[in-house]
Amino acid sequence: MTELGHVVLYVRELEKSIEFYRGIVGLELRGRLFNGRAAMLSGGRTHHELLPIEVGDAPAAPRGRRLGLYHIGWKIGDDLETLRAARDRILDVGLTLDGQSDHTISQSLYLRDPDGNEVELYVDDPRVDWQDSDHWMTEPVKPLDL
């Protein structure tokens, strides 16, 4: 395996998910499948990185410790200015941030999609060479002040 191809999510309302992943994450709608019940969304790397499928009203995964998906991380750019712009966009549309963290190797914002899935938006720190050094792995997670 060389890369993660895509993630498929079951969602309550497809249009809300499309709006979130286009407007907040920055993905593009590439097309629809299954008689309009699914959407192919892409950041441009491949035909689709995300495929939400509408299933209507269904129980959500419980919060807290559980098996299964924890969160999906999306690299949205290469600098803190991009992350600040994302934070402002999130707050401008009335969404809530669950947190912001400095992981040394990357800086991140955390929020929930319309179905309660945790989403991480991040930028890598260009000063950290993750390929030639692993010092960042032992660094504590720090609060991020944007």
Task: Please tell me about this protein's structure.
The chain has helices at residues 14-25, 80-92; strands at residues 7-11, 28-33, 38-42, 50-54, 71-77, 97-102, 106-112, 118-124, 142-143. It is an alpha+beta fold and 146 residues long. A hairpin with a 7-residue loop joins strand 3 and strand 4 (50-54).
**CATH homology superfamily of the largest domain:** 2,3-Dihydroxybiphenyl 1,2-Dioxygenase, domain 1
Binned, the helix content reads 10-25%
Low-confidence stretches: none
Strand/helix succession:
EHEEEEHEEEE
The gross shape turns out to be: globular
The proportion of strand residues reads: 25-35%
Lateral strand order in the biggest sheet: 5-8-7-6-9
Query: What's the total count of β strands?
Result: 9
* Radius of gyration from CA coordinates: 16 Å
The CATH architecture name of the largest domain reads Roll
Query: Could you say how many structural domains there are in total?
Result: 2
Characterize the quaternary organization of these chains.
Answer: single chain
- Summing up helix and strand content along with how strands pair, one would put the structural category as alpha+beta
As for the CATH topology of the largest domain, it is: 2,3-Dihydroxybiphenyl 1,2-Dioxygenase, domain 1
H/I helix tally: 2
The biggest beta sheet is recorded as:
5 strands, mixed
In round numbers, the mean pLDDT is 93
N-to-C terminal Cα separation, in Å?
35 Å
Which CATH class of the largest domain applies here?
Alpha Beta
